[in-house]
Amino acid sequence: MPEQGTPDLSRRRVLQGAAAGTAALIGAGAFTAATSAYADAPVLGTYDVVVVGCGAAGMTAALTAAARGLSVVVVEKAPTFGGSAARSGAGIWIPNNSVILAAGVPDTPALAAEYLAVVVGGGSTPARQNAFLANGPAMLSFVMAHSPCRFKWMDGYSDYYPELPGGMPGGRSIEPDVIDGNILGSELANLNPAYLPVPAGLVVFSQDYKWINLAAVNAKGTAVAAEAAARGAAAALAGQKPLTMGQSLATGLRAGLMQAGVPVLLNTPLTDLNIVNGAAAGVVVTQNGSPGLINARRGVIVGSGGFEHNAAMRAQYQQQPIGTSWSVGAKENTGDGILAGQRAGAALALMDDAWWGPTIPSGDGPYFCLAERTLPGGLIVNQTGHRFVDEAAPYVDVVHTMYRQNAIAPDIPAWLIIDQNFRDRYVFRDILPTLPFPDSWYQNGSVYRDLTLWGLAGQIGVSPSVLTNTVAHFNGLAITGKDTDFGRGVSVYDHYYTDPAIIPNSCLAPLWLAPFYALRIVPGDLGTKGGIVTDERARVLRPDGSVIGGLYAAGNASAAVMGHSYAGAGSTIGPAMTFGYIAGNDI
User: Which pTM value belongs to this model?
Assistant: First the structure.
């Protein structure tokens, strides 16, 4: 693990004690010594509330606390604001919010509670689930009242388990509406870039991608692509800098902080929490290479993200094989806030889990594979050449299956097998139909190509006879429209990213046109979901259940309210913002 420094260079002593698992190190006695050292550090400021992390959780928390009249500062490790949220599609899962109710979604508190309880089960406490459901709609209304953020329903993007009690086949997810980046002025230059930038000249929403993927073969897809271009042209004529998805969300929240007069200190990583008499009294940060103390009269809210880019933590807590290079989370997310909380005595949970998804480790960065594994004309096989999963299932479930079965029938990496017909019909990532995959993908072994399945199998180390038999069997299922092996297409969710022109099952089509392609699939993620244990008020808890005074956590720095599951699109950001809001109101 990376060292967590202290101003008097006592970090080696702290780290050695942590490595040895010495319980006394994280007790009150250890922090008495540390506090005296921190007291000698230069004081950079004193506020009512210090928020660590300028992502969706941190900015919502800061905005909430500021609206109560508290003085707030946000410290951010990165040279940019927005964190992983800015990089994302920014789906937000909030049952019973005003946006979906206005759109006619027939949601009710009872349905939402029933659904969340069955999806999450014992993965989080009923009290935390109830707090999320009770505060989510109020959070969203608050954000719209105190920032320029506006939202729209993602019509038809179903809950991930719509057939379960309380599930919504039409979906509960929302996404940010377009926002003009000019509202930030020069601060726009500090926005964390999107993971996959929107093509220049277009204004594209998350929901548009399902249709743009089909633009070459579907009239509505063509119309949606044209509409995206028209929105872009109109924005250009108006002199706007139109932003959607995570770029819109981060920009809107940052604008809210600017309006509220909340300072954001970029390039200011958390070094440690300042614990005085067992309670959080501020943070130690580094600025320009030097440590400094920021005091907090009310307390500290940790929203610093997960540990997806900390190789040592992933090796300690998670299954192998695992790779930090397979995550699309913000690169600064190395678990700093989680480790600081642990040193302060916080309990940790769900550290073995992440917001997983099948990912192609392409030569120009990981690609979190959504539509491509669902569209008809493709299947995923393990290293023996057999299918092992419903390829269109919720992405977290696909990776859970990969890890569960890897020891028995190795499937890390697995292989997405497609044919030229697939390539001629559908966009792949941002590669238009018929265009070749980038050379870098071939060079790093992310994709292989051959005129025959037999030859393709040889290239990827799979039995040629097994692969050809698997594809032949799959083609038979596709013709009938019934996946009797894994149920692909049984759930409404399976059909979101599919081709309605394909019948009788829009998820399934045979592979028949050479050449054939194999794309490497590994267990990537949007970020980790384990972290500091909190209660329904977002307060940080010790292993014995007692509260660490003045210390709160939200977002991926905290153990997810979703437990090991994933209720719907935006189950990361929705709870992150909600528990940031809860913390900002409670502190």
Answer: 0.91
